[in-house]
Amino acid sequence: MKFNKTLEDIKTYEAGKPIELVVREFGIDPKDIIKLASNENPYGCSQKVQNAVSAIVSKMALYPDDSMTKLKNALGKRFNIGVESLIIGSGSDQVIEFLIHAKAHAGTKILMNSITFAMYEIYAKHVGAEVLRTSSQEHDLDEFYAIYQEQKPEIIFICTPNNPTGDAIDAQKLGEFLAKIDKDTLVVVDCAYMEYAAFKDASKKVDAKELVECFDNVIYLGTFSKAYGLGGMRVGFGLANPKIIEELYKLRPPFNITTLSLEAASVALDDEEFVNKCIAASFDEMKRYEEFAIEKKIDIIESFTNFVTLCLNETQNSTALSNALLQKGMIVRNLSSYGLNAIRVTIGTPEQNTRFFELTSELL
Ligand SMILES: *Cc1c(COP(=O)(O)O)cnc(C)c1O
């Protein structure tokens, strides 16, 4: 059977291995498996969220409230932005999909960083768009601008903090860059980890409201999957000028967010104290990774989020290391598919991190 030609050179997205798969493949007891591969919140989600979701499980038979009024109002309040500037997706992934489908087609040029979130390219390829990449590992906005001037891409993806490297852009520099881009070019600013960066360093904080008010052609993306501890609920959002949002709505399938997910996200936004505690704990634990890297003479990229990227030296191999860790029940992210001899490790709980240091010390 023939399928669309555009699918031919798409590599299926390789998500962090689920715990269930490691149980089946290696016969390891689920309680001995530690997953530090997908940048989830190791402390889970707020107890208030769990209580709220438990209280409405009986509502599962009915379709969700497709107006999403409760969550939209909560997000509107949080970002001090009108609900007409807001779209909610099944993960911010779905908003990325809407954006590409709304603007790109065969041959459309889409510019992104040399190493960045893999889904941008996958969605770009759905429609046969052409992916352009910078050469530097960190976002170099001068290089972005030079390529922009030469190639006139229709969409630009900026990811800050960047996944999978953890570095973040100076917010003021980002503003200066955006001011130079013409209004027909859509710029996507993916801030999946912005809660972390803003906590660590105020100069990295991209203000969603400011972005939307200053730039008609820019969309800010956020998610409940990381700091809010709701990866399993699949809720993300985009904030932009209502003219962009209106177009994205044309692509949205009905009932794309479940009743339980809408409730979970609404309540999660209210428990800022929980999220801040988790973020503080994550940066405390990050210090141990930095010390570990120094001790083992491994390069570590300065991180503004909830994971660290460990760049191994020539005598070490990221594929071998991540496979060996996997057999011991420790799931981390091998970055060899990005062309890096590196692993990305989500900062876990203190106990999980201790286990990582023990196992990795043994294996190196
Ligand atoms: C995790 C992540 C997302 C999206 O996550 P969803 O679970 O789909 O909301 C988007 N961008 C980056 C960079 C991410 O790391």
Describe, in plain words, how this protein is organized in 3D.
The chain has 364 residues and is an alpha/beta fold. Helices cover 42% and strands 14% of the residues. The protein contains 14 helices and 13 strands. The strands form 3 sheets. Strands 2-8-7-6-5-3-4 form a 7-stranded mixed beta sheet, with helices on both faces. Strands 9-10-13-12 form a 4-stranded antiparallel beta sheet, with helices on one face. A hairpin with a 7-residue loop joins strand 12 (333-334) and strand 13 (342-346). Helix 3 packs parallel to helix 11, helix 8 crosses helix 12 (272-296) and helix 12 packs parallel to helix 14 (350-363). The longest helix has 25 residues, at 272-296. The radius of gyration is 20 Å and the shape is globular. Pyridoxal-5'-phosphate binds next to helix 4.
